Automatic annotation (TrEMBL):
Family statement drawn from the similarity comment of this UniProt entry: Belongs to the glycosyl hydrolase 32 family.
Organism this protein belongs to: Sphagnum troendelagicum
UniProt protein name: Uncharacterized protein
Gene3D superfamilies: Exo-inulinase, domain 1, Glycosyl hydrolase domain, family 43
Residue stretches spanning the membrane: none
Keyword field: Glycosidase, Hydrolase, Signal
Length: 545
């Protein structure tokens, strides 16, 4: 692959080489002063032997700002009978004295999935380089009636006022093993764990990987620590659907007395709920960052090129930019997501323009900006819906299917938005845009990311992504924030109400050949309220020595 180097990201986390997938996290340790060096720890699924999935171990990196990472040695190797075929996903927790603990899934020598625990060899090492697997491993095997190959990915632990610790493990149940479920385990001492019950299940949804269960405040952007309860919080259950390869979440009420979780909107997407990302993001996990009181979600983004391309590149997969998440007070079944503010430190030269018209059918280059490492903020004034003719067709399709069908082509109200990673002749372009369609409920706003012309390479997946995004009558503007980093485009609409991540592999829109255009393929003029574009510094990820 001649463009392998150009497609490597500059400010998204990647190992130096090889394969990476779903991960687990520990925040910096602030509870215990001996850890006060303020390191964020990222543990990720890593194949040391090559750029495809295989015998997985835990890679490890540390950062003081969630953006600049330093690679450390493997934290957990596949070296015991219970994890000999792979050290799979898990989570970090803190005991009350501040000791960090890892609980993870081992793929055993007989191909069963087991839950195991590891403790730091030296609690006074702020880098937590060495981990010791506890002698009582495995701490859990699949309970009777559950299949031992569908039992994995323990969550961060939380503790009830009854003194009992709790974790969830992803699984599936039912006659045909198709009912996705999160199994609750309890422990009085964090050492011996007992199966309690399924906390939540949804029929027909298949295996649930990487569950995540955490409290969120009813209002405000601050996060809360994992064991928070009470009337001021709701709980979020996120699962990674093995069938659909997407992360879904539901907001609901958790009762610690009965250990039951009741989603507020059980009907959403057949019970799976809402998506964190309508493009690519999987096996994401949140953690509570005590230093800044944020809840931060970190997700894995795989490639959209072929396995042969990954082998020739020598690497596969990246991490998304960590996202701060909080409950949307105006739509309390929804979370809002926004890139952590630390990424803004990478911003360098800025180009901005205000208040200009995008004529119907226009494609306008944004002068003065070239490059493949960008942070973009753009907002548009809402067009006058009154002028639009009554459509003959009332849509009941999903957002993605409308985006796919219509693409960035001519429509009445929109599409309008940006072309990024575009060549001057527009033969390569990734379109991120809005469009309005009429449905039975009235006007709806579509948010799309169209990769169909992103590359002249015919061997990459160029699926179009899209979703409806909520626009309230009080919203003054339609807005987008887009992070572009070589082969990844992460787009946040309406302040983080919907997010779409896409992977693209231009052959020509590389380095200084990549441009930005604004476009309006609608039949009505659109006013751009403002556009700000920053070139972004890259981050050198080094080995820690
Ligand atoms: N991959 C891991 C599993 C998890 C899945 C194995 C998510 O633990 O269920 O590499 O990507």
């Amino acid at each position: 692959d001649p463009n392998a180097t150009q497609h490597r990201t500059a400010f998204h986390f990647q190992p130096e080489q090889n394969w990476m997938n779903g991960q687990s996290l520990l925040p910096s340790l602030a509870l215990c002063p001996m850890y006060y060096m303020g390191f964020y720890h990222l543990f990720y699924q890593y194949n040391p032997l090559g750029p495809t999935w295989g015998r997985i171990v835990w890679g490890h990196a540390v950062s003081t700002d969630l953006i600049h990472w330093q690679h450390l040695e493997v934290a957990l190797d596949a070296d015991h009978w219970y994890d000999e075929k792979g050290v799979w996903s898990g989570s970090g927790s803190f005991l009350e004295d501040g000791t960090p603990v890892l609980i993870y899934t081992g793929w055993s020598n007989t191909s069963t999935q087991t839950q195991n625990m590891a403790l730091p060899a030296d609690k006074s090492d702020p880098l937590l380089r060495q981990w010791v697997k506890v002698p009582q491993n495995p701490i859990a095997v699949a309970p009777p009636g559950f299949s031992s190959d569908k039992f994995r990915d323990p969550t961060t632990a939380w503790k009830g006022p009854d003194g009992e610790w709790r974790i969830l493990v992803g699984s599936s149940e039912g006659e045909d093993n198709r009912d996705g479920t999160a199994l609750l385990y309890k422990s009085k001492d964090f050492s011996t764990w007992q199966f309690s019950r399924p906390l939540h299940s949804v029929n027909g949804t298949g295996m649930w990987e990487c569950p995540d269960f955490f409290p969120v405040r009813l209002s405000g952007k601050l996060g809360v620590e994992p064991s928070s309860l009470g009337p001021g919080v709701k709980h979020v259950l996120k699962i990674s659907s093995e069938d659909k390869k997407h992360d879904y979440y539901v907001v609901g009420n958790y009762s610690i007395e009965t250990d039951t979780f009741v989603p507020d909107s059980p009907q959403l997407d057949a019970g799976l709920g809402l998506r964190y990302d309508y493009g690519k993001l999987y096996a994401s996990k949140t953690f509570f960052d005590q230093f800044t009181s944020r809840r931060i979600n970190f997700g894995w983004i795989n490639e959209s090129d072929s396995e042969e391309a990954d082998v020739s590149k020598g690497w596969a997969s990246i991490m998304g930019i960590p996202r701060k998440i909080w409950l949307d007070v105006n739509a309390p079944t929804d979370l809002l997501q926004w890139p952590v503010e630390e990424v803004e430190k990478l911003r360098i030269s800025n180009v901005s323009r205000e208040n200009f018209t995008l004529g119907a059918g226009s494609v306008v280059p944004l002068e003065g900006v070239i490059g493949v490492q960008l942070d973009i903020e753009v907002s548009f004034e809402l067009p006058d819906m009154g002028q639009a003719p009554t459509p003959t067709e009332l849509l009941a399709e999903s957002g993605q299917s409308v985006c796919k069908r219509t693409g960035a082509e001519l429509n009445i109200l929109g599409p309008f938005g940006l072309l990024v990673l575009a060549t001057a002749d527009l033969l390569e372009q990734t379109a991120v845009y809005f469009q309005f369609v009429q449905s039975k409920e009235g006007w709806r706003t579509l948010f799309c990311s169209d990769q169909s012309q992103s590359s002249l390479d015919p061997y990459v997946d160029t699926t179009t992504y899209g979703t409806y995004v909520r626009v309230s009558e009080f919203d003054p503007l339609l807005s987008l924030r887009i992070l572009v980093d070589h082969s990844v485009v992460e787009s946040f609409a309406q302040g983080g109400r919907a997010v779409i991540t896409s992977r693209v592999y231009p052959k020509h829109a590389l380095d200084s050949s990549a441009r930005i255009f604004l476009f309006n393929n609608g039949t009505q003029n659109i006013t751009t309220h403002h556009i700000n574009v920053w070139n972004m510094n890259g981050v050198k990820m080094t080995n820690f020595n």
